[in-house]
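Q: Now give one record:
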Amino acid sequence: MSNSHRMTYRGAGVDTGGVEQSLADITEQLRQTWTVPKGQTGSVRLDFGLFANVIEIGNNKGIAMTTDGVGSKVLIAQRMGKYDTIGIDCIAMNVNDLLCVGATPLAMVDYIAVQALDPGCLGELAKGLTEGALRAGISIPGGEIAQIKDVIKSETGKDGEGFDLTGSAIGIVDLDRIIVGERVCAGDAIIGIESNGVHSNGLTLARKAIGNDVSLYEKSFPEIGRSLGEELLRPTHIYTQEVLPLLDPEQDIDVKALAHITGDGLLNLSRVLSRVTFVIDTLPTRPPVFSIIQKLGGIADPEMFEVFNMGIGFCLVVPENQADRTLELVGRFGKKAYRLGRVTDRDPEDWEVVIQPPDVRLRGKGKSFSSF
């Protein structure tokens, strides 16, 4: 397939680059609400653009806050008629972001918008939310159900089946232990923790790749050992077990940066507050679901790495001399961790992330990769 006809996220309806100006307009307005001076209860401690923000509450403590949903993964759940795991995704998308500023997650409230009340579906959603909260070690003290038939529609056309699921989560962090990556420097090691597959990003492109052949959702692929629909519904991994021990001062690990690898893929590393370049020399074998999606859609490598996690769901940056111990601590909890590469001084051409294993060579800045 020629480059001019390859499938893209933008072509599927998601313009991640185009959102920048809109986001700038919104944040310019919202920053006017930051009226509490630093050092007082209620002051905003971080800028927009990080994975979460922190509100000062006194005694060197801050409440970390974030909000997120599961996106068009709800449409996969509708297509498969399976709703008992997607709540785990909602917990994961929020909790993993809280971890990225060094916070310990505490609680999340959910918002479920439905086309029509379906006790069976809601009960299954509640199972997933409960399971996710238990895995993350948080509570769900409240939430909201909204019946908005005129807004929410069904993927399958079956009346009353449509829904959306989002949440807002909080955590606690010492103000002097907030992690935003400002100390990341040349020579630091990049550690990656494996994902559960697609997680909850890029499903719009995956669905576009599948196209109108809905039988593909039910088709079993030997390389993944299940149907494609079941694979796409594998819940996002919650990284609290792997990450929180590293943040314990008693472990004496200097975690300089953390990145939840969601939309924008490994370009999420560049959200740190340091002007450096992340050089990825090694990547694990990609889960076969990504090759299936890429082949179905004729999607180019740069687009795949911009949209999907490609097998790495979370990254940490630590000093090189602490990399082996970090790998050992993460590995205690069953997830595989890898030394992906190293941090260098900012590339002369201003590339922020360079991926250069033998099988793929990409360099990226902002929200896009290009081959080299």
